[in-house]
Write a structure and sequence with these properties.
mainly alpha, Rhopdopsin 7-helix transmembrane proteins, two-stranded antiparallel ribbon, about 0% strand, globular
Length: about 325
Amino acid sequence: MNNRAGRYLDTNEAMYISLTSLSSVLSIGGGVSIILVYRKFVDLQTPLRKLFALLSLADVLTATGNILGVMWYMYGDRDYLILCKLQSALTVFSSISSFLWTVIIGVCLLFTIVIFNPSFAPTYMKVFHIISWSLPAVIAVLALSMDVLGYDESLHQASWCWIDPRVENALFWQFFTGKFWEIVAYIATLILYTKVKVYLWKRSRTNLATKGHASSSSALHEANRKLTFVPLVFIVLRIWGTLRFLLGSFAHEYASSPAGSWIVPLQGIGDSAQGFANFILYCFFTEKIRNRLLPSCLVKKRRNAHTIEVKTKEVKRAAVNVLLNENSSDV
């Protein structure tokens, strides 16, 4: 595979580019699907599902930025960094927004389930928008205006644009434009979802001890099971980028060596796959949405099959008419 300079990309670079592109495309498709499903089924539009749709929008932007980063890495001009900086600003904005929406969902679950305040999410929805869109925008614009965005030329492995390590206080900017918010999201997500999970576990035990309704216990078990995956998927996917950042900051020689190349494709997949993972959780692990989607797909499939059958009959009928007309003209 050739890159923009005309040289061949090595195996690790080709793997990084392929896996990042694939996971980004899947995330864009998954995120857009979540938004479309949310808008289609009006009766299922709860505040928490609205938050998942907004999180998906941020994940779509992140995946789009990562694709642009791969394209710049392959075909861009290192002496012309405007596209690199714009891609970096986009991923800074969308990544921080995604972290904030993830924490907000955890907070809303805590208030809705544990504190039993269902009106919390809709009451503060405008505040959530201001926090999750305005704060990342200010950080991205500030980094762009201070000219700290760029590419790590000392890194001998594939990567997308972020903070130029040659700028003053580069480590501060790396934390400020992403890693601080990411680590805070890890901690907050674990605390919030653990509290909700423990509460649901205690409730399920109480229902069993008091011989509560089976449907209530089943619903609690289903919510418990889904909540287990939310922080787990978030951390498992994003931890590789955090680990690569830590290695690059405190063990740069190892991170740039062939021995440290194993983490590159994992970061490429993890940092781009959040939208697709949320799509799986949202559409296939949520029974109400799954039950709506499957019949819709079956109906559409039957409708397409019926349309094809009708068109086939019309073609055959037209062909027969042509033959009859030709035969009558011969007579």
